[in-house]
């Protein structure tokens, strides 16, 4: 007898999300061959659910055995990464679950993010949790050294910071045994079987914040051999907060229990301004003086290959505005050094951020090859072109930071999972974001640089859309965590909330 697979669909209001949702629902119906004429059998559903869980447990045992066997090779790989400068030279053993700090007594909440963008989204929630629960210790982990170098200066002083353990049985078990977290908050798409199953076995409450699964990852997690493990992992969570309706449907199609899914908005809107020390602030003020009375625009988070597009745009704009300043902020600092070197070989004068170069007369290009300063530079420019979006296969970057700074925002056509953010902002105000192809970028920038009124309208539209979408997100997330996760987590440890 056939049975019904049930899921809940809550529309966020954006037509783009609704269309995506319809396609996903159709995909589900076609894939599972559901029929409205079939009847629903609770006993059969329970039996099938039990079989799926048993199959998931079996697949997890295979995964655990494989990762246990590969542990020596993974450790060698980490040593190789340390040699190449990709792991912290002194603290790389933290990736194997070896702590470098003492654990304070009392309950501990662990927040984990893979890299800088996800980590910055966690910071407002961490600060809110500390205000609500000052008696709880907060541990923050990230994977990349780039995130470590920036985030360590942004966290409150009483937050512990470690590198995250790799997903091997030894590293995860050692980490959980030492830190004994009461609750774990994972950011975005950090679904690791040893971590999630290990936490559940230790009665550690789990939450997935700003949850997302890319189309490619969804295809992988829904494969016949893997989907039972996916369902098993998702069943261990007490709370999942997806960043869009489309993401929520993907999780439910992967057999995530619908009652644990709630909505509060995209945490990328909640990222506040990065704190600036006195020395950096003074340097930025000096740069602001150098930019006065000159036309300025910025290409941010650009990837390899996109610098050719941006430099071509710069050359075209310079024909009309000879004194124009183009600020280029590559996604990776080393890429910025390469751009500056190639331009200087061609006789182009370039100011490089890491050398503390000044914008002298005749210098029209400023390359930012440092980490964690993007938000600061958004405050210095009236126009931001968001990179990672102009070449096929790109997935875009966070738009909200530029909107928060009041920039007129342009982006390319390939923005991946950030399309929901663009749709939301454009729905609130069509002038908030302009999405263009590379060959139209010159015309769009020329219009903004030549028309002060149009520039001001787009700046104000972006700022208004950002404030409308960011209102109350952090507070809502903390309320969901309090009710669904922290209350249960502390009760499991015999503590009162």
UniProtKB/TrEMBL annotation:
Using the record for this protein, list the coiled-coil segments as residue ranges, or answer none: none
Q: Which residues form the 3-deoxy-D-manno-octulosonic-acid transferase N-terminal domain?
A: 91-270
Q: Where are the transmembrane segments?
A: none
Example GO molecular function:
transferase activity
Annotated keywords: Transferase
Q: Which InterPro entries does the record cross-reference, listed alphabetically?
A: Glycos_transf_N, Glycos_transf_N_sf, Kdotransferase
Fetch the Pfam families from UniProt: Glycos_transf_N (PF04413)
Q: Which domain of life is it from?
A: Eukaryota
For this protein, the record's Gene3D superfamilies field holds: 3-Deoxy-D-manno-octulosonic-acid transferase, N-terminal domain, Glycogen Phosphorylase B
What is the name of this protein?
Answer: Probable 3-deoxy-D-manno-octulosonic acid transferase, mitochondrial isoform X1
Upper classification of the source organism reads: Eukaryota, Viridiplantae, Streptophyta, Embryophyta, Tracheophyta
């Amino acid at each position: 007898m056939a049975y019904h697979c049930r899921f809940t669909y809550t529309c966020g209001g954006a037509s783009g999300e609704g269309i995506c949702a319809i396609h996903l629902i159709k995909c589900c119906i076609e894939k599972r061959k559901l029929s409205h004429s079939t009847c629903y059998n609770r006993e059969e559903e329970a039996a099938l659910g039990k079989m799926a869980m048993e199959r998931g447990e079996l697949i997890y045992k295979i995964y655990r055995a494989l990762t246990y066997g590969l542990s020596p090779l993974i450790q060698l790989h980490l040593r190789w990464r340390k040699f190449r400068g990709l792991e912290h030279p002194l603290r790389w053993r933290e990736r194997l679950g070896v702590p470098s700090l003492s654990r304070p007594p009392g309950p501990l909440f662990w927040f984990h993010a893979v890299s800088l963008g996800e980590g910055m989204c966690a910071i407002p929630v961490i600060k809110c949790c500390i205000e609500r629960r000052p008696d709880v210790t907060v541990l923050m982990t990230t994977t990349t050294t780039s995130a470590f170098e920036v985030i360590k200066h942004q966290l409150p002083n009483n937050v512990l910071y470690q590198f995250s353990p790799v997903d091997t049985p030894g590293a995860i078990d050692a980490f959980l045994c030492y830190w004994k977290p009461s609750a774990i908050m994972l950011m975005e798409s950090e679904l690791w079987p040893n971590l999630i199953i290990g936490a559940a076995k230790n009665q550690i409450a789990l939450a997935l914040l700003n949850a997302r699964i890319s189309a490619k990852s969804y295809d992988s997690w829904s494969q016949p051999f893997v989907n039972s493990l996916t369902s098993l992992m998702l069943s261990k969570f007490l709370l999942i907060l997806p960043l869009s309706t489309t993401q929520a449907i993907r999780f439910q199609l992967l057999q995530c229990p619908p009652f644990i899914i709630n909505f509060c908005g995209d945490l990328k809107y909640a990222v506040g301004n990065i704190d600036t020390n006195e020395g950096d602030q003074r340097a930025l003020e000096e740069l602001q003086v150098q930019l006065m009375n000159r036309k300025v625009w910025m290409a941010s988070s650009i990837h390899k290959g996109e610098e050719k597009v941006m430099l071509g745009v710069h050359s075209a704009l310079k024909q009309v505005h000879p004194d124009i300043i183009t600020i280029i902020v590559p996604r990776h600092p080393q890429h910025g050094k390469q751009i500056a070197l190639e331009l200087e070989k061609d006789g182009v004068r370039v100011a490089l951020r890491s050398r503390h170069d000044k914008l002298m007369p005749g210098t029209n290009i400023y390359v930012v090859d440092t980490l964690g300063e993007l938000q600061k530079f958004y405050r210095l420019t009236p126009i931001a072109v968001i990179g990672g979006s102009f070449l096929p296969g790109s997935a875009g970057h966070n738009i909200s930071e530029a909107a928060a700074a009041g920039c007129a925002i342009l982006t390319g056509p390939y923005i991946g999972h950030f399309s929901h953010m663009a749709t939301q902002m454009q729905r609130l105000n069509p002038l908030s974001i302009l999405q263009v192809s590379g060959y139209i970028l010159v015309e769009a920038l020329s219009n903004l640089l030549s028309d002060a009124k149009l520039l001001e309208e787009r700046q104000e539209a972006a700022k208004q859309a950002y404030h409308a979408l960011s209102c109350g997100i952090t507070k809502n997330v903390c309320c969901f965590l309090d009710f669904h996760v922290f209350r249960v987590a502390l009760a499991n440890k015999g503590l009162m909330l």
